[in-house]
Design goal:
single chain, 238 residues, mainly alpha, Rossmann fold, 3-stranded parallel β-sheet, 10 helices, 11% strand
Length: 238
């Protein structure tokens, strides 16, 4: 996370070898993205914010297979991986759909399936929900959340609520790493949020303003409010 121009997207492009560093070193699994791009791109997949930029073929299944064809994966293995990737993003039955007929969220899920088919170890997600409507954003985030047990996910976003389940949050400003914290600690650090122009989600912010402790969801907030009311009345909560 970080303000506009802080260096978040630059970091993603450095990790994938799309940009060459002016100084210092970049390594992904011990490989230099500039001098060993093939080794790095076998291990990483990048999802950008505009789903249109990730679609290159006339049909969904062809688009998902595109990366595998470039890697020379055998045909039977390719079919298996394509089918599994499409199923994993909830688009079974869409194989022969034309990508331009899909919603924004569906297009982004097709692009995500194309990455998963290559079976990368690391997913680099550069604001993958910024151009989606609310339903599309929820669906893409749900699919990404399901990958956290099996992949390393580097998720760039302006929406703090998208990182509440993250293992750690890196705050980048002015091209420098200014903080590396757990999500809960970031939410509680008003000075760090303000210095880096980060806006906490509505529910945690409202809970903090009301002195109700940590609340992540509207249900958490409603429960905390109810407990406060019952405690104030002296009645027993059932």
């Amino acid at each position: 996370m970080g303000p506009n121009g802080g260096g978040k997207s630059t970091l993603v492009r450095l990790l994938n070898g799309l940009l060459v560093p002016d100084s210092g070193e970049v390594a992904v699994a011990g490989h230099d993205p500039v001098t060993e791009p093939f080794e790095v791109r076998k291990r990483t997949g990048v999802l950008f914010q505009n789903p249109e930029n990730g679609l290159v073929a006339p049909f969904v299944e062809d688009d998902v297979a595109f990366g595998l064809e470039n890697l020379g994966v055998p045909r039977e293995e390719m079919r298996r991986r394509v089918a599994e990737a499409i199923r994993s993003v909830g688009l079974s039955g869409y194989e022969r759909r034309e990508p331009h007929t899909l919603s924004g969220g569906e297009k982004q899920r097709v692009a995500l399936a194309g990455l998963l088919a290559v079976e990368p170890e690391v997913l680099l997600l550069d604001e993958p929900t910024s151009m989606l409507d609310a339903p599309g954003r929820r669906e893409v985030l749900r699919r990404i959340g399901g990958l956290r047990r099996s992949k390393t996910v580097l998720h760039v976003t302006h929406h703090l609520e998208e990182l509440l389940e993250a293992d750690r949050v890196l705050v980048i400003n002015g091209g420098r790493l200014v903080a590396e914290v757990e999500p809960g600690r970031l939410m509680a650090d008003a000075a760090l949020l303000e210095e880096n122009r980060l806006v906490p989600p509505t529910v945690p912010r409202l809970a903090a303003d009301l002195g109700l402790g940590s609340c992540r969801t509207p249900e958490d907030l409603a429960g905390a409010v109810l407990r406060r009311v019952w405690e104030g009345s002296g009645a027993e909560i059932r």
